[in-house]
Amino acid sequence: MTIARNQDSQPQGIKSIEVGARVLLALEQGRGPMALTEVARAADLHPAKVHRYLASLVRTGFASQNRATGLYDLGPASRHLGVEALRRTDAVSAVSAHTTELRDQTGHTTNLGVWTDAGPMLVRWDTGAHALPIVIRVGSVLPLLDSAVGCVFLAHLSGSVTREVLRSQQRQGTTRSASAAEIREVKEVARRDRFSQTSNQMIFGLAALAAPVFGPDGALEVVVGLVLPARMMTAAEARRLGATLLATTERASHELGYRGE
């Protein structure tokens, strides 16, 4: 039995799956909750047709609908799929071994963040020995100004990359408002110290440090974070953990081919 092929000599697919993928891509490119008409316009499909596909996507968890507003967004299955795809990238896979070693060495929770179109996303969380006021779910998008991981991305990525994400987060209230001078200071401190530190900002009772991992071309690949109860973050502990964190990220950077300082 032969497989029928189209004019481009590619195997024939299932049209309904391709249409469903168009609807999912429309949700992804919307960068936030969307009305049915907005999804239809982005997918270039009739609203009635899009409604049927959205109903199936909601049932399977690839889309979600806010009962109060009726707006559609990506669902938990889409987030899990995206996180798993990110986990399988070379940089994330290579650095993950270092985060578990850092957890075992310090006793504190470690995490790993990557940059996405939506902002810094948590792709790994290794729970440490000390109880935390909250566990941040893998797949969560972190605030740029209120998380240590976010501050590192802000410091080491171009403003053309981070500017619109920061504005969007500030409009939505997911990160704090700040003047240009305050943002500049956040960047300068992160670059000077080579890591970023927060306490009681993103979540009360939570303190964190984060440092960059660079690739062979010197570009920021991923960010490694340490999370601990805020009550444990003394000045001396911050210095000790900062040194340990930097030793870890430097080893990870060299493993990825970085030959800078």
Secondary-structure-based class equals alpha+beta
What is the CATH topology classification name of the largest domain? Answer: Beta-Lactamase
- Written as H for each helix and E for each strand, in order along the chain, the element string is HHHEEHHEEHHHEEEH
Label the CATH architecture of the largest domain.
2-Layer Sandwich
The total count of helices amounts to 9
Characteristic terms for this protein:
261 residues, Arc Repressor Mutant, subunit A, five-stranded antiparallel β-sheet, disordered N terminus, 48% helix, 7 strands, Beta-Lactamase, alpha+beta, two-stranded antiparallel sheet, 9 helices, single chain
Structure description:
With 261 residues, this protein is α+β, with helices and mostly antiparallel strands. The chain folds into two domains: 15-74, Arc Repressor Mutant, subunit A (Orthogonal Bundle); 81-255, GAF domain (Beta-Lactamase). Helix content is 48%, strand content 17%. It is built from nine helices and seven strands, in the order H-H-H-E-E-H-H-E-E-H-H-H-E-E-E-H. The chain has helices spanning 15-29, 36-43, 47-60, 76-87, 90-106, 148-156, 159-172, 180-193, 235-255; strands at 63-65, 72-74, 109-116, 119-126, 196-199, 206-214, 220-229. The strands form two sheets. It has a five-stranded antiparallel sheet with strand order 4-3-7-6-5, sandwiched between helices.
Secondary-structure map with pairings?
Elements: H1 15-29, H2 36-43, H3 47-60, E1 63-65, E2 72-74, H4 76-87, H5 90-106, E3 109-116, E4 119-126, H6 148-156, H7 159-172, H8 180-193, E5 196-199, E6 206-214, E7 220-229, H9 235-255
Antiparallel strand pairs: 1-2, 3-4, 3-7, 5-6, 6-7
Helix pairs in contact: 1-2, 1-3, 2-3, 5-9, 6-8
